[in-house]
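From: lab user (bench 3)
To: helpdesk
Subject: output format question, protein + DP6

Hello, I'm new to running complex predictions and I'm not sure whether the block I got back is the full result or only part of it. Here's what I submitted:
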Amino acid sequence: MKGTAKAHTNIALIKYWGKRNEKLILPTNSSLSVTLDGLHTETTVQFREDLQEDVFVLDNKEVTGVAYDRVTNYLDLFRHYANKQGVFAEVTSTNNVPTAAGFASSASGFAALAGATSKALDLQLSDEDLSRFTRQGSGSACRSIYGGFVEWQMGERDDGQDSFAVQVAPQDHWDIRVAAVVLTAEEKDVSSRVGMRRTVETSVFYDGWLQSLPKDMETIKEGIRDKDFEMVGKVAEANCLKMHATTFGATPPFTYWQDTTMSLMQTVQNLRKKEIPAYFTIDAGPNVKVIYLPEYEKEVLRTLEAARGVEKVIVSKVGAGISYK
Ligand code: DP6
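Helpdesk reply: Thanks, we reran it on our side. This is the complete output you should expect:
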C-alpha cells in the first residue's frame, strides 16, 4: 500500500481562468501548457492500518491547516473510489519549487499526489483517468500528467468525464526554454482559486476573455505544430495579458503584479527590440516566466539576471510526464 511518483510543474501558455463547477473543478475554457523539467515534486503515499488520521510532511515539515485539509479531502476521493474508507495515509513530499511563489507548485504537487496514491492503491489507472483524478485536486495539475505540450480539454458534461488533459506534442518535439524569474517569495494576497472565482462572478471583462479563447487555442496549436516561435510567443503573451486584464475589471479589482513584474515585462519586450525573440507569461502571482529559444540563452539570462528586483532565475527545458519509482 505504498507508491512514489514524481511530477513536473507546467506553465500555461493559454490560461485556465475560471470554473463552471467548483466542486468537480470543471473549467470555463480549455487551456494549454508546457511541462517544465526544472521544477518538480516527488511524493510517497503509504496507507497504514495503524494511523488514526492522515499525516502530510512537506519538505521535512509536518503540514497542518488549510494545506493539510486540501490533501486529506483529496485523499477521500481515492478512498471512496477504492472502498478504503477509514484507512489513513502518510504523505511525504519534496518540492524543488518555491511553494506559493506563483510557481504552480500545486500543479506538480497534486499530479505527484494523485500518481503516488493511485500506485499505493494499485488502481492501474490510464493517464486519462489519472488526469481526471488530478484535475479534482487542482485544475492546472491535470496537465502535469503528460510531458511536452499539453491541452486540458474543458469538456461539456456536468459529470466532468470529458474534462481531462491530452498531449498535443511530445517532450522531444521542440526544444524551447522557460526561465522562471523569481521576483519575490512572499505569499500572495489573493489565491488563484479566490481570484478566478471573483473574476468569473464580477469582472466586466470576463466575457471578452472567453470569446477570445478559441482563436488563441487554434493559433497556438498551429504554432507548436510548425515550431513557429514568434507565433507561439505572441499568442501566449497576449493571452496572459488578457487574463490579467480580467482582474482589473473585477469587484473589488485586484492584480497579481508588482512594480518589478511590470518592469520585467518591459525588459522582455526590449529584448525583442534587439531582435532576441523572448516572450513573457505570468500566472496568479508576481513572478514572470520567459520563453525563448536555446540559441539565445546566454543573452536572455544575462539580461534577466541583471534586471531590477530579480532574486533568482530557474531555467527549464520542456519536461517529461509523471514517472514512478
Ligand atoms: C493562473 O490550478 O491553481 O495558473 O483549480 O483552483 O486549484 P485550482 O486553480 P489552479 O489555477 C491555475 C491558474 C493559472 C493558469 C493556469 O495554470 O492555467
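A quick orientation on your result: The mean pLDDT is 95. Let us know if anything else is unclear.
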